[in-house]
């Protein structure tokens, strides 16, 4: 037989497989944004497109603004645009808490979890509800300052306004992409090509990664386009794109890993294999090392290949550090139940963003910790809205070795529940950002948790007297290295004096947007003299910061790396030059809205001190 015939047969089979894949994808209406469907494709039937702005902001992980204000808060994303198409720094926009990599370079930075999939790079999120459920045809994001942070857009099957919640909540990715640098801070309308989904939605989630940005990203509004009836794509012809096949395989791999995650956890019967391949010849430790680089879904898949690898994939040593945050949309009580036997030695656990809308119950979470909590050292529960007092009580009882607890944005936990944390005397890191912790509970925590090194109380609005809190820190928390008092409304020079005298190991202090602190009282010069180890100091929006304060920092805090004096009117270029000459390690200096520091001064300082990122924000 001529050699050409086998080649033709192979090509025919390849072409048939491509057409079959395309037909299947088109039928279920999940065409990817880059699929090569040409202009002769049309949607049937033709629906009238509905255009709507977000009605309500349902949930978010962080924001720059205050809990009692609208300036720079996520709530600004509801409704029509306030700023767009203008560019610049405006208080009427939605702004997340961080940007760039500065937060990864300060003393409070946490070590990352291994095995995080490369496809998951989200740092923050916001969820938006719309009036009418639609099949999305487009999503427009109006970005007004430093765009480019959005990395993923998702749609949810649950209707937040329905009286009958669905038995199963589904999340589908409409668009996803790795972080990319955008040239220039100017406003833009970001309209990525989204894929079609097979259910109507009025709940959209944006996930962002601000690590490549030079400043805070600002979002003004989100516009959802969609139709009431599900579009059905009809193909007259289609062109095959090789990239299309790779994308399909990647999507199916992800879907398989997530949709069957719970099933794979529970597999106990395996096919009979004659041998375990060449893995029998490898040392146990070497196989463990190889498998340590796999993600959780990959471990579950590999466990189905042979008995030897099943044993390795279920070994508790593979689950010493476990982050389930990348799979937040699929983790539920069943997932935790199946993981119990594998997590008996777990030390680091990340359940951030998981369990919301009933996915994880209090009883399911409690059962898991009762089995797996004895060795836990680090527990991440950011935005865990299923948490209540019972959960905190179980944590304190079942995790005697706990050293790090993150409850950031767990704003559903009642105030009295935080009293239980005082039972964990071994705590070294406690993050209570945007929680309802109240003063009595916090005083008890500080009294009994004297090993604390890192404490975040940013945007904790239930605390009545921060001077009393600062006094307790100075008396009990001698090992404190980082303290976040962002938007603390009532701390005065008295509390700062107690804090500086008692916590002289402090390397990081955030006093941004603390309006009751006045430079004229000497509070900032006192800080500079008492805290020589400071590496990060944020005095954001304190208009009283003056040359004397900057000169004291230059004289006493020579290890300073990050300084934010946004908004001050009393700092001159001369004092900044002294600071830059003295603090050789300084890498970030924010002088936005400093009236004496114009663009000419910034250019001059940049030229003389090229290793320092000097930020000057603007408004048009």
Automatic annotation (TrEMBL):
One of its GO terms (cellular component) is SCF ubiquitin ligase complex. CDD domains: F-box_FBXL4. It holds the Pfam family F-box-like. SUPFAM superfamilies: F-box domain, RNI-like. PROSITE patterns: FBOX. GO terms for biological process: SCF-dependent proteasomal ubiquitin-dependent protein catabolic process. Keywords: Leucine-rich repeat, Ubl conjugation pathway. It comes from the Eukaryota. Residues 276-331 form the F-box domain. This is FBXL4 protein. It comes from Callaeas wilsoni. The gene is Fbxl4.
